[in-house]
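REQUEST FORM: STRUCTURE PREDICTION
Request ID: SP-0412
Submitted by: Lab K.M.
Chain count: 1
Length (residues): 215
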Amino acid sequence: MDAQDRQPMLDGIGATEMLHIFITNRFDDHRPGCTGRPVSGYQGRIVDEAMNELPRGEVGKLVVRGPTGCRYMADDRQRNYVRNGWNITGDSFWQDDDGRFHFAARSDDMIISSGYNIAGPEVEAALLSHPAVMECAVIGAPDDERGQIVEAHVVLASGHAADALMIKLLQDHVKAVIAPYKYPRRIIFTHALPKTQTGKIQRFRLRDQQSSERR
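STATUS: Completed
RESULT:
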C-alpha cells in the first residue's frame, strides 16, 4: 500500500442507548491518544456527581445529548441514565483546552482517594510495564481515612517471589511511571484473576469478594 493511500485509524465513542456515535476524530481533525470532538448535532460535557460541569483537564463523568436517545425501561440500573436532559454514559473522561475528549476509564473503574480521581486502567498499565507482572487488575478498596485506596491484584511472572520486597518494588515502579499519589497502597498476589469465557477480567468479582470479606 502506498503511503498516500494510508489513512489513520480514528478513535470514537457511541452507545446503544444513543443509537449513534457521538464523539469521534475526523480524517481532517484527529489527534493520537484522544477520542475526538462531538459529532454535529451532539454535545458532550464532563461533570461531577451533582452534574456540575468540571474545568478542562479534570476527570469526571461524560454526559452527552443530541437528536437520538433511548434507555432500557426494564433495567433498574438505567433508572437514572438520563438527568436534566443529559445521557450519563458510564464513562469517565477529561477534556483538553482544544475541546477534545480523552478517555480515562469506565466510571466503575474510577477510584476516588483523598479527593483524587484515579483511573484503574492507568495504574494497571504502569504495573504491566514491570517485567515481574504477568497480569493485574486494579480496584478501589474502602478506606476509613481516604475513602478508597488503590488495590492491585497481581499475577507475577514465573521466577518472581510474592514477598514484601516485590510489593515495594512494584509500588516504587508505579510512582516513577505515573503520578506518585496513584500508586497501589495495597498489593495482593494471586495465581489467577477472575475472567469471562472470552478472557475479559471481571473486576466486579474482586469488588464483590472484597465486600464479602468486610461483612
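NOTES: The domain at 114-214 is CATH 3.30.300.30 (GMP Synthetase; Chain A, domain 3).
Reviewed by: T.R.
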